[in-house]
Design brief:
The protein has 11 helices and no strands. It has helices spanning 3-8, 10-42, 47-62, 65-73, 80-86, 89-93, 95-121, 125-132, 137-167, 179-190, 194-221. The N and C termini lie far apart (47 Å).
């Protein structure tokens, strides 16, 4: 493996690395925000929010992420006048923000199912005890239920972040050159296959750092 290839293209690789982290970081943050109403909808006793959340989770978990990205980026052009009227065309015409939206919408479906399952696994006595203490529904969810559910769902959520990092490479399809996109450009100019090996090593380092971070969080949560 020729290290000079990496040194010569260090600036490009760094830009791709930063773009990958920005894409995954923003997507994960937005997905965490979307997850909250989805979980509430999945556990709602009302028909409408429960049906919406179930449909959302089924669609985004059952269809390919690349198809969802294409629908948002290429399909939104057919509704340009409507989106311009709503003032959100700037989001759909930009490859980066459109990719963040697609990744966030897709990623939110998985943690929602994880957290919902974690809440369902908790004993009903938790709710009854909180009610007996005079806690309202919101306070019970915030102080009693969610801290325990997050502890149970955290390992699965860490895996979802890892999958999101590896899936970020599909943004090449919408002209967004993150780390692997930059590597592809470098290979097209040098025809040196070792650049893909270096890319794999960089991805392994990123994933390993994410796993160590979540392992630390798990140990912190399960300390007691």
């Amino acid at each position: 493996m020729d290290t000079s290839l990496v040194i010569e293209n260090a600036g490009r690789l760094y830009d791709g690395f930063k773009l990958t982290l920005a894409l995954v970081g923003l997507s994960a943050t937005c997905a965490a925000i979307i997850t909250v109403p989805l979980v509430l909808g999945l556990r709602s006793k009302a028909w409408a929010p429960r049906a919406f959340s179930n449909t959302y989770v089924t669609f985004f978990r059952g269809s390919p992420l690349v198809a969802q990205l294409f629908l948002l980026y290429y399909g939104s052009g057919q509704f340009r006048s409507v989106l311009e009227g709503l003032g959100v065309w700037w989001l759909f015409r930009d490859a980066f923000f459109c990719s963040v939206l697609a990744f966030a919408l897709n990623s939110a479906a998985y943690p929602a199912a994880l957290v919902k399952g974690a809440i369902d696994a908790l004993p009903e006595g938790q709710w009854e005890a909180a009610t007996a203490l005079g806690l309202g529904w919101v306070a019970t969810l915030r102080k009693v239920i969610m801290p325990q559910a997050i502890r149970r769902a955290l390992p699965g959520y860490g895996n979802e972040i890892v999958l999101l990092i590896k899936a970020s490479s599909i943004t090449m399809a919408v002209t967004l050159y993150e780390l692997l996109g930059v590597v592809k450009v470098i290979y097209s100019r040098t025809f040196d296959i070792s650049i893909y090996i270096w890319a794999a090593l960089i991805y392994i380092c990123i994933v390993s750092a994410i796993r160590l971070a979540f392992r630390f969080l798990e140990q912190s949560f399960f300390r007691w």
